[in-house]
Amino acid sequence: MSSNPTMRSILVISCFFCLCCLTTLIYFCHLYEYSWTPPIYAVHRLSIDELNLSSPTLWPKFELQIAVKNQNKLFGFSYGTGSKRGSTTIRYSSVSLAYGFHNPFYQEPDNVAVVQTELLRQILLLSDSARRSLVSDERRSTIALQVGMASTLGVMRHGGGGGDEFQMVSVGVRCEVVVDRLKPDSKIVSQSCKVSIYE
């Protein structure tokens, strides 16, 4: 008694479909296990030592806190390697106001860390046009600053002892931040941060 060709075709198609589904499932499980997303960055606080814009010489000092959110469930991030520190800068238009460094640290998966940095510049001579622009912006309570952060980033698949190194990249963060005044109690009016990852 010969088998039904139609039934045989249905069985072959069903087996092929099941095999495709299984392969796809394995692929996405592997992708989930070994894929990571960059952290989310935001300026948490920005305190500015009062700048006397009537003086020709300034000594800027900033206290900066950046909140770093790691949304990954399986991956942690190691910022900096050994004694190599990450750098942070604050600019106003084309003028570099201050710069500083943050020490290496490890961020656990599914974690929010706050990176605190003191930024200084010993002597700053502002041009007349930059000074006038700063004074005008402060009167309007809309001073646009650019906060930059750069660091090496070790991507660690989480495990005992902080995880095993998975990938080493460089991360660059640029935040456009608007504050209301150049004083210790300055408030952040608005901000927008972009992250760039370099292999």
UniProtKB/TrEMBL annotation:
An annotated GO cellular component: plasma membrane
Q: What is its main location?
A: membrane
Please verify whether the record's keywords include Signal: no
**Location relative to the cell:** Membrane
Q: Which GO terms describe its biological process?
A: defense response to other organism
State the superkingdom. Eukaryota
- Give the UniProt keywords, A-Z: Membrane
PANTHER family per record: LATE EMBRYOGENESIS ABUNDANT (LEA) HYDROXYPROLINE-RICH GLYCOPROTEIN FAMILY, LATE EMBRYOGENESIS ABUNDANT PROTEIN LEA-2 SUBGROUP DOMAIN-CONTAINING PROTEIN
Q: What is this protein called?
A: Late embryogenesis abundant protein LEA-2 subgroup domain-containing protein
The species this protein belongs to is Acorus calamus (Sweet flag)
- Which lineage is the organism of this entry classified under, starting from the top rank? Eukaryota, Viridiplantae, Streptophyta, Embryophyta, Tracheophyta
